[in-house]
Design goal:
With about 240 residues, the protein is an alpha+beta fold. It contains five helices and 13 strands. A six-stranded antiparallel sheet has the order 11-10-1-2-12-13, covered by helices on one side. A hairpin with a 5-residue loop joins strand 12 and strand 13.
Length: about 240
């Protein structure tokens, strides 16, 4: 395992990222989602609560240039499942699960984002909590090294995840032009027992110029009770 501090402090632009895991004491299922931006349009955003989930909104609506790909619901809850994604595929997964499809089946109708030449990967996760048990799945949909004619689909499942361990996926390996897509399996990272400490660790190690918003949620595996932190750079 590596630390999220190391993962974030050494990468100027990981883009958007998802972390899912379990606290060292085994009590909480944890997820975090952050967004970053290089353009004024991408940076002009905040996270707001919507039901049990969150949505992105323009901080200054008068400066919103193009809502596609930047305005969406990153987090939605369906029963005991929590869905976290970097785009409007949150709704695709939500609808698919509601219809009885699996996480993987639901995402088969989606591909990477149509934002050539970057062709940003769609990254997604779902957390399953039921009967005091916790498991999660993660997905990466990406182009074949920038070739939009080929979509590569990767799904990872984690049953009875180890206490203290999580997994981290993000959209870009680092800054660049075009931006290089994430490569490899989800990175094994350390999770902290304390939500405030974990939130602070993530926010302080995201690049100061590029970070936009952060969402962190701890879910009590035994009771389903949730605690949530949201930080927006724009205030």
């Amino acid at each position: 395992m590596t630390s999220m501090k190391q993962q974030l402090s050494t990468n100027e632009y990981p883009g958007r990222g998802i972390v899912v895991g379990r606290t060292p004491n085994g009590k909480y299922a944890v997820t975090a989602y952050f967004i970053m931006g290089r353009s004024s349009n991408s940076r002009n955003r905040v996270f707001v609560t919507e039901g049990e989930g969150i949505r992105t909104e323009a901080f200054d609506p008068s400066k919103l240039e193009d809502p596609s790909l930047i305005i969406y619901a990153p987090v939605r809850v369906l029963g005991s499942d929590t869905i976290v994604t970097n785009g409007d595929q949150t709704d695709t997964v939500y609808d698919g699960l509601k219809e009885g499809k699996t996480f993987e089946e639901s995402l088969r109708v989606r591909e990477f984002e149509p934002d050539g030449p970057n062709y940003t990967p769609r990254i997604s996760a779902v957390m399953h909590l039921a009967d005091k048990k916790f498991s999660y799945e993660m997905s990466i949909l990406k182009s074949n090294n920038g070739d939009p004619s080929s979509c590569q689909r990767f799904t990872y499942s984690y049953e009875n995840p180890k206490a203290g361990e999580g997994h981290f996926i993000h959209t870009y390996m680092h800054d660049g032009n075009p931006l290089p897509s994430y490569e490899g399996e989800p990175t094994s990272v350390e999770i902290l027992d304390d939500m405030e400490s974990f939130t602070k660790l993530l926010w302080e190690n995201l690049n100061e110029d590029n970070k936009v918003s952060l969402f962190v949620r701890y879910i009590d595996i035994a009771t389903g009770k949730t605690e949530t932190n949201i930080i927006n750079k724009n205030k």
